[in-house]
Amino acid sequence: MGFKTVVLAAGKGTRFKSELPKVLHPILGKPMLWYVVKAALEAGSEEVIVVVGHKRELVEEFLRENYPQVKTVYQSRQLGTGHAVAQCRELLKNYSGKVVVLNGDTPLVRPEDIKAVASTPGDMVVLTAKTEDPTGYGRVVRDGNAVLKIVEEKDATPEERLITEINTGIYAFSAEPLFRALEQIDNNNAQGEYYLPDVLKVFQKEGLSVVPVLTSDFESVMGVNNRHQLAAAESVMRDRIVKELQLSGVTVHNPQTVYVEPDVTVEPDVELFGPLYLRGKTVIKKGTVVGPFCDIRDSFIGEGCTVESHCWMSGATLKGGASCGPFSRLREGTVLEGGSRVGSFVETKKAHLKEGAKANHLTYLGDCTVGENTNVGAGTITCNYDGFAKWRTEIGRNVFVGSNTLFIAPVKVGDGAITAAGSVITRDVPDNALAVARSKQVNYPGKAESVREKARKRAEEARGDNPRQNS
């Protein structure tokens, strides 16, 4: 039997002390709400309705961009969880199936727990958990497989406080009795709010069944109410993802320091060394080794590549057998073909290095193509920006670029050409030509001593007549 889901996401989250709505605070690069909606959809929810409130426009914008199929309802005043669910009455007025209620600040919730609570027979199903330290949680008082009451800690008797089974705040209801019950609860409490758990008494009064479902994973129902708890939840999610990688055939060294966002794909037989950040939609194919202290985002790394330590890349593509690092920076649009390499302190942007091309150190390659088997010497710069527009440099195959060559774009260098070290290339270089663009060296025998003497005199004049006064 199918079910629909209501996600409560209207609260401000005052303990976050933030202008950002609570449910949009990120865990591994994704807002908490992203994980909750994803879990509901993966569990098979027919429809997801998100209750929005504080800064609704930000939450609605996020949902439009990430989950356009999700519907929203607006809770103009935050008057409690029961009041929030009641706002969904119109969208669910003709629905007679199960309604699962989730909280937008429980990013660790698992699809299997949602399935369990949705599929368990009962008019009201309460997802519960057991913990050695239940302090601060509402206790579940049960009689066999029936929930008698949910009692908050401040209202619990000494015997009830010894109960280790707690209420997670996740429920499944039969839709019709749920909305009938919501009309009967009141806000006669210290907060003046309408609480969703209060429908339990109404269900019992009407002779409806209230049953518990116990989760085996207490961490999965962890609520996030401040930034300390946010960090704890992110740690759990990170461990989950790293464990999945390890079980799928990825070797992860120093796993506690490896940060992997949920949209990253890593194939078997990849070796990762922490500390390491893998972000966005990065893909790493089999046989690749990624060294420590790298930050890789939205990049594609092909089979058998080597990424040495301290590399940063964003929007880059490394094809099979390419390598980079240590200390390389590969910016958006960089493409390294098979067997090509960039080395220490090389920065690239919209640079296409074809098969076997190499720039091993101290180089900037921007808006350029480097042909097959071309060697780029240290200190080379493609001067691609004239203050108004970017221009391209085209370097052919089998070119030898001498150290400290500057290419003043737009410029083309033909196949097999050589540029002399220290040259400033302002015009196209034909195939197999030697380009020398530097002033002629002139040697003056014995001139060095007279230059030093002039320098000494200038220094003495700068200090004053007495050369000793500043000694």
Automatic annotation (TrEMBL):
It is found in: Cytoplasm. UDP-N-acetyl-alpha-D-glucosamine binds at residues 8-11, 22, 75, 80-81, 138, 152, 167, 225, 331, 349, 364, 375. Its cofactor is Mg(2+). Binds 1 Mg(2+) ion per subunit. Residues 249-471 are annotated as: N-acetyltransferase. The keyword Metal-binding applies. One of its GO terms (molecular function) is magnesium ion binding. Residues 4-203 form the Nucleotidyl transferase domain. Acetyl-CoA binds at A378, N384, Y385, S403, A421, R438. The active site is at H361. Residues 449-471 have a biased composition (Basic and acidic residues). Catalyzes the last two sequential reactions in the de novo biosynthetic pathway for UDP-N-acetylglucosamine (UDP-GlcNAc). The C-terminal domain catalyzes the transfer of acetyl group from acetyl coenzyme A to glucosamine-1-phosphate (GlcN-1-P) to produce N-acetylglucosamine-1-phosphate (GlcNAc-1-P), which is converted into UDP-GlcNAc by the transfer of uridine 5-monophosphate (from uridine 5-triphosphate), a reaction catalyzed by the N-terminal domain. GO terms for cellular component: cytoplasm; membrane. The keyword Calcium does not apply. This is Bifunctional protein GlmU. Residues 1-227 are annotated as: Pyrophosphorylase. PANTHER family: BIFUNCTIONAL PROTEIN GLMU (PTHR43584:SF3), NUCLEOTIDYL TRANSFERASE (PTHR43584). The lineage of its organism: Bacteria, Pseudomonadati, Aquificota, Aquificia, Desulfurobacteriales. In the N-terminal section; belongs to the N-acetylglucosamine-1-phosphate uridyltransferase family. In the C-terminal section; belongs to the transferase hexapeptide repeat family. It holds the Pfam family Hexapep. Its main location: cytoplasm.
